[in-house]
């Protein structure tokens, strides 16, 4: 309290006016609390940088600063909310909160990791609220339940524990209505209401997704619930998701042709229980993979799902042969209940699932496991019938201008000026800060001006206090290289309908050649944009670029220089779809370059070979490794594993630094780290020392699809490469190395087919991986089923290529206890009721393999004289994630 009080007192007239405005006409303390809370939670962004020189991160900023900037970290938002509530006459205090394990009341320590607010409505009774959660209408999120806190009062206070929110307040409520037509088509509508913690989590995700991404998300979920379903329409309410005063609701319309399975006069179908894929309760139960626990299992919140559906079998003629019956579960930790009824051609279902606690003791965990086995079995049940004969963008790019000026020495200046209007909350979150990465040894970056003009026309400039220069994340791990910098600019007062404007200039020193790709259409609408390049006539003559009919081009001479300009007017937005290729491969774009691949390859090849020449220690280590070994593949395997262990990947992208800064191979080996090019020189030197004839290769980071590579190679772009490989020929086939780690089989690559620039020849060639090293998995299931529905399942997974490397590393680095848990989780993946009989794991072999044999009681559902079951998981669905029907 003593630390915070001076900051809380910095109340300005504008803040007092805001409190009066928010509480006008409100009579109860609860009404005032909700109004003021909503303002701080939703209008003050949760972000900021630390500028204090003493005790950084402990005290809040003065509340007037947070109010004015419209952003702050947790302690800043908590202080502002406290000050505004006190101004409204409420007894509000900052609260020190620990998000994590509960503290020991008898052994005090002063470490808390979060700041919230408490209002004393009755003596010693506090109403808690967390204003950092910007996507919830709840004062206090359920995921902070059952945790320790201290209220910072003038008199002091003792340790409290936050109350647990009942599961009934953290529900998803689902209702589905539909019909199955005589031709077997399901037409259905599902309405989902998200309450409590479900509202906060799902709203937070949806606010940062485009409508296309939301559509793909729901399309994939619906396909998982109803095989072959097509999602026809999605409606997410409220339309302005940042309006947390309105509950989150989703309405889905979908259809599925050939929905029922019909044969020999019988019909069955998977019941449309949508709740199996929506709601946080599904994530909670996913943690119960271990067979038993020594310590309690904690979950992040109470939660639950209630669901109903009503499906009409149009045309009648269906008679129930077997209708599933369910056993209800109800104890202090969990409840589950489900029922079905069929009357007059209408199938009705009701379901309820509640997680009522946030902590399961080891004994309760065993009971939970048994419950989940029973639930899993019940969820497999199906009815058997006998049959008688517009998109909204997050922002609008008002204008964008890029000017390139090329100098005779090969250096150039790039100046970019952007004006952007923010259209919604997702755009506000996305564009509230600017980030620029550069390396001072080859370039300089300067933000000339950055401003925000709000909807009322008030303009604020981002001054020096809102600019922060940081080292790139890799700098501390690789001190040998010149430190890369990240310039971050926090933009003040960004909100809906704000206009952001900035100008940034970057100066790049001489590079191997000049290249640029400029995109003229993206996932946001654009009003106007232009790209200008200015150079001396002799330099302009060497510049090549593609033509695009959607982009206007002009050339003129001015002041003894050639000016090339590309312009477009209004461009509509491209749908923001999942798994799309790079936009420049199909959207209007200009590729500019004065480079030549042969010259580029020759220069890099010379520099890399020169770095590999200083390698006496590399040679000695290589000869020691292969002493007495005659098999050439084994020699390569040992050298690759040695290099992977002794020289860890660290440092910048090698193309961001000049060739002159390549490190001699022996120095890289001695330092124990290097970027891709330096690690390649160590591998090259070691292979050469034992009689191989290695070559350097620049692999393209895009697959060998003509539409992707055609313009990249025709108008040389240095961004095409970010890795250096080394290749050697063994038994008539090339092996490409310097990918993966000590667990990777030599010759395995991230993709089974790529294209690369061979530095020795300066030509592009296809890079083919031997078939035995292709990246794939083979999954074989053998099910032995008895007449009672009990099964013995043998599951064998064989790993090839990078899958083997990943499995080998994961399994090899497990402790014995982790391996025991791994086996339990793999067994549970077959079924919660599975009991392991036998296992055989060969992770280090190539290919890798895991074979499990387990018994599963009641794997198939027996209903009267009928027996049915689901086949194991569909591998095709896992390999290819299909979202919407159309793209």
Task: Itemize the secondary structure elements and their pairings.
Elements: H1 5-8, H2 13-23, H3 29-43, E1 45-46, H4 63-69, E2 71-72, H5 74-87, E3 92-98, E4 114-122, E5 125-129, E6 148-151, E7 160-161, E8 171-180, E9 186-194, H6 197-207, H7 211-225, E10 230-237, E11 248-256, E12 261-263, E13 266-268, H8 281-285, E14 297-298, E15 303-313, E16 318-322, E17 329-330, E18 334-343, E19 346-355, E20 359-360, H9 362-379, E21 384-387, E22 395-406, E23 412-422, H10 425-430, E24 433-438, E25 443-453, E26 459-461, E27 467-471, E28 485-490, E29 499-508, E30 515-519, E31 529-535, H11 537-540, E32 544-545, E33 552-558, E34 561-568, E35 589-593, H12 597-613, H13 616-625, H14 632-646, E36 648-649, H15 665-671, E37 673-674, H16 676-689, E38 695-699, H17 706-714, E39 725-730, E40 733-737, E41 753-758, E42 763-768, E43 776-785, E44 791-800, H18 801-812, H19 816-830, E45 835-842, E46 848-856, E47 861-863, E48 866-868, H20 875-879
Parallel strand pairs: 1-2, 8-15, 22-31, 36-37
Antiparallel strand pairs: 3-4, 3-6, 4-5, 6-7, 8-9, 9-11, 10-11, 12-13, 13-21, 14-20, 15-19, 16-21, 17-18, 18-19, 22-23, 23-29, 24-28, 25-26, 25-29, 27-28, 30-35, 31-34, 32-35, 33-34, 38-39, 38-41, 39-40, 41-42, 43-44, 44-46, 45-46, 47-48
What report would you give on this structure?
The protein has an eight-stranded mixed beta sheet with strand order 10-11-9-8-15-19-18-17. 24% of the residues lie in helices and 33% in strands. The protein starts with a helix and ends in an 8-residue tail after the last helix. The chain is globular, with a radius of gyration of 32 Å. It contains 20 helices and 48 strands. Helix 4 (63-69) packs across helix 5 (74-87), helix 12 (597-613) crosses helix 16 (676-689) and helix 15 (665-671) packs across helix 16. A hairpin with an 8-residue loop joins strand 6 and strand 7 (160-161). By secondary structure, the protein is α+β, with helices and mostly antiparallel strands. The longest helix has 18 residues, at 362-379.
């Amino acid at each position: 309290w003593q630390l915070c009080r001076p900051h809380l007192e910095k109340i300005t007239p504008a803040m007092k006016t805001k409190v009066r405005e928010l509480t006008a006409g409100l009579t109860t303390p609860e009404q005032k609390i909700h109004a003021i809370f909503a303002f701080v939670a939703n209008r003050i962004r949760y972000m900021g940088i630390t500028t204090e020189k003493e005790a950084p991160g402990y005290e809040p900023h003065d509340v007037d600063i947070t109010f004015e900037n419209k952003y702050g970290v947790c302690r800043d938002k908590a202080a502002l909310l406290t000050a505004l509530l006190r101004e409204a006459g409420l007894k509000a205090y900052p609260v020190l909160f620990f998000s994590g394990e509960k503290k020991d009341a008898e052994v005090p320590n002063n470490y808390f990791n979060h700041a919230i607010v408490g209002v004393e409505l009755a003596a010693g009774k506090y109403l808690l609220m967390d204003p950092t959660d910007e996507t919830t209408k709840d004062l206090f999120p359920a995921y902070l339940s059952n945790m320790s806190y201290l209220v910072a009062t003038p008199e002091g206070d003792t340790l409290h524990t936050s109350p647990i929110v009942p599961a009934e307040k953290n529900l998803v409520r689902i209702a589905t209505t539909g019909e199955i037509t005589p031709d077997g088509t399901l037409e259905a509508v599902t309405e989902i209401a998200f309450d409590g913690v479900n509202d906060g989590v799902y709203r937070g995700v949806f606010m940062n997704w485009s409508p296309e991404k939301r559509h793909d998300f729901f399309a994939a979920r619906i396909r998982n619930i109803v095989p072959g379903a097509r999602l026809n329409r999605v409606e997410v309410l409220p339309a302005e998701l940042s309006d947390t005063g309105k509950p989150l609701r989703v309405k889905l319309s979908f259809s599925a042709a050939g929905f029922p399975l019909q044969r020999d006069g019988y019909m069955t179908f998977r019941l449309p229980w949508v709740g199996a894929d929506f709601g946080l309760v599904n994530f909670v139960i996913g943690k119960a993979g271990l067979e038993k626990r020594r310590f309690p299992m904690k979950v992040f919140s109470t939660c639950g799902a209630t669901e109903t559906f009503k499906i009409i079998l149009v045309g009648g003629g269906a008679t129930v042969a077997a209708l599933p019956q369910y056993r209800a579960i109800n104890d202090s930790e969990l409840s589950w209940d489900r029922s079905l009824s069929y009357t007059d051609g209408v199938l009705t279902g009701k379901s309820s699932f509640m997680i009522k606690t946030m902590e399961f003791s080891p004994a309760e965990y065993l009971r939970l496991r048994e419950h989940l086995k029973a639930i899993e079995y019940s969820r497999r049940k199906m009815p058997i019938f006998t049959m008688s004969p517009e998109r909204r963008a997050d922002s609008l790019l008002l204008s964008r201008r890029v000017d390139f000026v090329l100098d005779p020495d090969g250096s150039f200046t790039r100046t970019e000026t952007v004006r952007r209007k923010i259209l919604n909350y997702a755009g506000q979150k996305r564009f509230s800060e600017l980030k620029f990465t550069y390396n001072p040894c080859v370039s300089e970056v300067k933000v000339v001006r950055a401003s925000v003009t709000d909807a009322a026309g008030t303009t604020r400039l981002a001054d020096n206090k809102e600019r922060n220069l940081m080292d790139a994340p890799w700098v501390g791990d690789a001190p040998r290289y010149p430190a890369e910098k990240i310039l971050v600019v926090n933009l003040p007062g960004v909100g809906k309908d704000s206009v952001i404007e900035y100008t940034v200039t970057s100066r790049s020193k001489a590079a191997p050649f000049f290249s640029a790709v400029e995109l003229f259409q993206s996932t946001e609408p654009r009003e106007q944009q232009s790209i200008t390049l200015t150079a001396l006539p002799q330099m302009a003559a060497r510049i090549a670029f593609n033509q695009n009919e959607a982009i206007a081009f002009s050339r003129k001479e001015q002041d003894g220089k050639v000016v090339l300009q590309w312009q477009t007017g209004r461009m509509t937005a491209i749908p923001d779809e999942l798994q799309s290729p790079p936009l420049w491969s199909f959207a209007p774009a200009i590729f500019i370059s004065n480079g030549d691949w042969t010259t580029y390859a020759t220069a890099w090849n010379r520099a890399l070979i020169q770095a590999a020449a200083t390698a006496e220690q590399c040679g000695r280590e290589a000869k020691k490794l292969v002493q007495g070994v005659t098999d050439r593949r084994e020699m390569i395997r040992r050298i690759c594993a040695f290099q992977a262990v002794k020289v860890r990947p660290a440092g910048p992208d090698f193309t961001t630094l000049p060739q002159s800064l390549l490190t001699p191979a022996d120095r890289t080996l001695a330092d124990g780290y290097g970027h891709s090019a330096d690690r390649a020189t160590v591998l090259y030197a070691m292979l050469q020392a034992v009689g191989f004839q290695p070559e350097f290769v620049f692999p393209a980071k895009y697959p060998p699809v003509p539409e992707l590579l055609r313009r990249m190679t025709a108008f040389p772009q240095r961004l095409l490469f970010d890795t250096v490989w080394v290749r050697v020929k063994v038994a008539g086939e090339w092996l490409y190395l310097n990918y993966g780690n000590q667990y990777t089989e030599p010759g395995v690559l991230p993709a089974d087919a790529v294209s690369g620039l061979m530095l020795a020849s300066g030509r592009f060639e296809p890079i083919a991986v031997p078939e035995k090293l292709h990246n794939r998995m083979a999954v074989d299931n053998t099910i032995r089923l008895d007449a009672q529905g009990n099964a013995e399942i043998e599951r064998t997974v064989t790993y090839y290529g990078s899958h083997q490397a990943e499995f080998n590393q994961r399994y090899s680095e497990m402790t014995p206890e982790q391996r025991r848990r791994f086996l339990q989780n793999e067994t549970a993946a077959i079924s919660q009721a599975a009991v392991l009989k036998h296992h055989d794991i060969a992770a280090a072999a190539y290919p890798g393999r895991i074979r499990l044999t387990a018994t599963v009681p009641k794997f198939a559902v027996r209903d009267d004289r009928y027996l049915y079951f689901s086949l194991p998981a569909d591998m095709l669905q896992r390999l290819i994630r299909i979202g919407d029907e159309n793209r």
